[in-house]
Write a structure and sequence with these properties.
With 129 residues, the protein is α+β, with helices and mostly antiparallel strands. It is built from four helices and five strands; from the N terminus they run αββαβαββα. It is globular and about 40 Å long. The mean pLDDT is 96.
């Protein structure tokens, strides 16, 4: 998976941070959905690779609960980086709690956590009542 992520990271548009990030979602039906970070001079208009992939999956007809695994690589870092809190919110909304999330460094280290471990105190629809 890490080789696929490294190749995918070349599609990142990151002229400001120079921090290329790639995500591959594995769906329950085995389909892999790619995503990369896309930056913008108006930083708030940028999107992380995780949300890029998740939104693509939803746009292609997948639904809440169709996600099997998330794989993410920060290609320009020797460290493992995990999802930002905006991405964690989207992940916690659409993924089952037991979905495994794999985070890689460019040196091959990997951290595997469940969504429940990544998002221990989710904000969801029950909080809106």
């Amino acid at each position: 998976m890490i080789d696929k992520l490294k190749e995918l990271a070349n599609n990142s548009y990151s002229p400001y941070s120079h921090f290329r990030v790639a995500t591959i979602l594995v769906m329950k039906d085995g389909v892999e959905i790619p995503g990369v970070n896309v930056e913008n001079a108006a930083y708030g208009s940028s999107i992380c690779s995780e949300r890029s992939a998740i939104l693509s999956a939803i746009s292609n007809g997948y639904k809440k609960g169709d996600f099997k695994e998330l794989h993410c690589l920060c290609a320009d870092s020797d460290k493992i980086s995990t999802s930002c809190f905006a991405c964690r919110q989207v992940i916690s909304e659409l993924f089952d709690k037991d979905v495994k999330c794999f985070f890689y460094s460019n040196t091959g280290e990997v951290l595997c956590v469940t969504v429940e471990e990544l998002c221990p105190y989710p904000f969801g629809e029950d909080d809106l009542a």
